Amino acid sequence: MKVLLATQKPFAAAAVKGIRDILEAAGHEMSVFEKYEQASELEAAVADAEALIIRSDKVTAAVLDAAPKLKIVVRAGAGYDNVDLAAATAHGVVVMNTPGQNANAVAELAVAMMIFMARTQFTPATGSEIQGKTLGIQAFGNVGRLVGAKAKALGMNVKAIDPFLSADQIAAGGAEPETSLESLYASSDYVSIHIPATPETIGSIGYELISKMPKGATLVNTARKEVVDEAGLEKVLEARPDLKYVTDVAPDNYAALREKFGMRVFATPKKMGAQTAEANINAGLAAARQIVSFFETGCVKFQVNK
Fold first, then answer.
1. 53: burial class by Cβ within 10 Å (0-12, 13-18, 19+)?
2. CATH of domain 2-101+276-297
3. Which sequence spans correspond to the domains of the chain?
4. What is the tens place of the pLDDT at every residue in 45-98?
5. What is the pLDDT of residue 79?
6. How far, in Å, CA of 286 to CA of 230, rounded?
């Protein structure tokens, strides 16, 4: 089978080699398409691909139309909102993600962001410690559980809520289960967001919810920018000069937020949650193994467009 590794943001060389080794050992042919700039370039590149490995690359209906032989797309990472699932299903293409492979890298970044904001972005000004503070985790999946474990190791009190988990499951994961999203925000000095961008979650974190946070609280977003209502965020930061926002996914109004609120707001220059050598390799190798299993045994364990 012809497997295309298509990444605007390239994998590390070690990851590319590992992916190639896995695929070629199973009898597949791999080609690499990196650092492209236009969607039309990807559309041309997928013409003869039977499998596709991507990162944050957008697989649109147009891309799928241009790939008549395509049978599977694997998104090396947890989030898959960059793939048009309905169009993939219509084309008979299986879409998978690689959950958990980037989780530790994202969790470490979330904790680092809390410390960064607590210590006034490492300026000489007096900061505060996170020990003894309460962390609320919104969604207690692979990343959320790791954030909680690291926060507890640093002496934080950890709460969590997840609509797909019972209170007992959250407690077993090491966090105090919270009864509602509103109470989670109202009782947490830090809230770390780990929800996907879905029709139900997009814009769901806005003025009403953020304004419930206690004095001096910080909202941490290593998920997707779309889940935060940017107008609501700006409104609450204006009304509450004690609140802070730190994110790995810069909002569209970031320049305006920085101009108005200065160091109370910070966004990384580019999404870097999974930008570690370890996560890079883990996700890439997992994607390759899933493609091999799919063609050898029909395994669709991580399919997301069922």
1. buried
2. 3.40.50.720
3. 2-101+276-297, 103-267
4. 999 999 999 999 999 999 999 999 999 999 999 889 999 999 999 999 999 999
5. 86
6. 34
